[in-house]
Amino acid sequence: MSTASTTQAPKGLEGVVACTSKICFIDGDRGVLAYGGIDIHELADNSTFEETCYLLWFGRLPKASELKDLHQKLAAERSIDPGIINLLRNAPKNVAPMDVLRTAVSALSFYDADDKKDDHDANVRKAIRLTSQIAMIVAAYDRIRKGKDVVKPDPTLSHAANFLLLLNGEKPSQTAERALDIALILHADHELNASTFAARVTAATLSDIHSSVTSAIGALKGPLHGGANEAVMHLLKEVDKNNANPVEYVRNMLAQKKKISGFGHRVYHTEDPRATHLRVMSHDLGVASGQPKWYEMSKKIEDFIKAEKKLNANVDFYSASTYHVLGIDIDLFTPIFAVSRISGWTAHIIEQLDNNRLIRPRADYLGPAYPQHWVPIENR
Ligand code: COA
Fold it and tell me: What are the residues facing 32 on neighbouring strands?
């Protein structure tokens, strides 16, 4: 008789190394995040989202002509089939944009010129196309649900500026464009986070990029992952609405054994380097827009959670107040995470397919010992 295994699989695969990758480096003890070896702080200070995409997809910074070429390709791909626009129009108006995005990305494969091709170059083309299209879908659905016209992209604008143009119907200020650009850089990749792992698992079956990205979007939506940024803003709004003391509010949540969204991380044991930038952005944009209260509330909560639980703010904590003062609706926060992370997802999918093997781990069986026997229903 074989008995249940006595080895303990690490819960949530904590500490398990599941693949090799050249895309993203994280040192959770020192709070280091780097794409292609370049520290995220340097990229946030100097780079653009487009350049970051190139770095993730091709493993190095682009030369000027290569960056220009990528800008042109992203601009050329800023078009979605009327079938997708119809899908957005037909979605019930109360559906969460993240759910619409998941379904629309899956449907994009119906209209993809490279749908039947899965070689490296076709996958790079699809990565560029999906990066342009996901931003368009998020913005277009928001306008459609508000009864507004879908806006045409402007090929002379950056990816960040185009997104804000498509969302708001007007060219953004330089401050808003740069703020979103930095946020997109910071969210672009994060090694084997849950959604990227989901994307790689799906890609490894030799399914297609659209299926892999759809898996990733489904994983990103959850409040333990990308959905946390929306949960943070709901918390801040609740505190504000009730004119509550933010510290007492979260103290009460902790007493009820509730988790505080935007804190804690599986990999970082110190400050999440992305939070360092977003904290400053939340402060500066809050002051500039005449709404410093969201930052002030956030900072009080951060100081308290750090002292009380020794938990650091993660990427989602200050992205919430940053996006809010940029005038973005709360239920677009997680879709905007996808607008950025599509670059990392596709880089990982391409890397997986370039050196593929099916991802198929084992489970530590803890059920009834083998063999048990089938019993006729009247004897159970
Ligand atoms: N608020 C309160 N307590 C938290 C917490 C939070 N945000 N994050 C972790 N903890 C506590 C847990 O309750 C647990 O305490 P216990 O050992 O007394 O039970 C301990 O810290 C370990 O947490 P755990 O959930 O097992 O860690 P993990 O590595 O599995 O989870 C996260 C990592 C990110 C899922 C987790 O920190 C979390 O749920 N954070 C809130 C959601 C969030 O912001 N997600 C976005 C991540 S970028």
Answer: 27
